[in-house]
């Protein structure tokens, strides 16, 4: 448990460094990770692999990049060195089923088989490492599709230096949503759809930029309401409408004139109170706000 807590703390510090761009202590933290007895279970719980990979991509320090690569390479070996690798009875070992969470996808299993069959044979072409999200977390097709949609909504034409990886961020946001609902049910899907719609909103680019820069963390964007995600212009507009509605309600109840000449359109009774306010220019007639004392219905009478 002590090792897991240490990894969690180091991971949080590295996330802040990636978000802020200040990576002076990154090398010391990576060395501390190297000296910890990290297991496959700790990798699954802390997601430290994704954090170190993000640091590697954003860093310009050769020592940091080299050490990050060596850590990721060592951790990937845990996937193939798990005890679940057993023989098939004919002296051939079956491919490892170890994974960071629920198992590998079909394509990952195929790649693993190709790598094991090519051992001991000279390669005709130099292998080119493929940049993938580390660690692989799920084989659920619905979750994978949702991660792709979230990643696509975060991608921009001009990538800035302090922007995070959209694929990593999309995976983290989806993971937070899935942890809340524990299933890919309708509530889960609606939550993902609302994130995608707001992140893609061309009238609210600040939301996407703030997520990419780490100003809004994945755990926060996963639970934000529509009001929280709205642009400043939309928030001001909503506040204006709310204030007008409150003022109309207060005018209709406070200091109004009681009358039986006006009939409520809902309850059809004539027990009403009205106020007249000059809401337009002086040469325009006043606006009458009516309140039904019976059912509470309010309306504007012109």
Description:
The N and C termini lie far apart (71 Å). With 302 residues, this protein is of the alpha+beta class. It contains 13 helices and 4 strands. The chain has a 4-stranded antiparallel beta sheet, with helices on one face. The protein has helices at residues 2-20, 26-35, 40-46, 48-58, 62-80, 106-117, 141-154, 166-181, 186-200, 205-212, 218-221, 226-229, 232-253; strands spanning 257-259, 272-277, 287-292, 298-301.
Please provide a brief summary of the model.
With 302 residues, the chain is α+β, with helices and mostly antiparallel strands.
**Which geometry do the CA atoms define?**
elongated
Which sheet architecture does the biggest sheet show? 4 strands, antiparallel
SSE ordering? HHHHHHHHHHHHHEEEE
Helix content percent band: 40-55%
- Poorly predicted runs: 84-136
Question: What class, by secondary structure content?
Answer: alpha+beta
Rg is 29 Å
Q: Give the number of helices.
A: 13
Order of strands side by side in the largest beta sheet? Answer: 1-2-3-4
Alpha carbon gap, first and last residue: 71 Å
Number of strands: 4
Main features:
302 residues, four-stranded antiparallel sheet
Annotate the secondary structure layout.
Blueprint: H1 2-20, H2 26-35, H3 40-46, H4 48-58, H5 62-80, H6 106-117, H7 141-154, H8 166-181, H9 186-200, H10 205-212, H11 218-221, H12 226-229, H13 232-253, E1 257-259, E2 272-277, E3 287-292, E4 298-301
Helix pairs in contact: 1-2, 1-4, 2-5, 4-5, 7-8, 7-9, 8-9
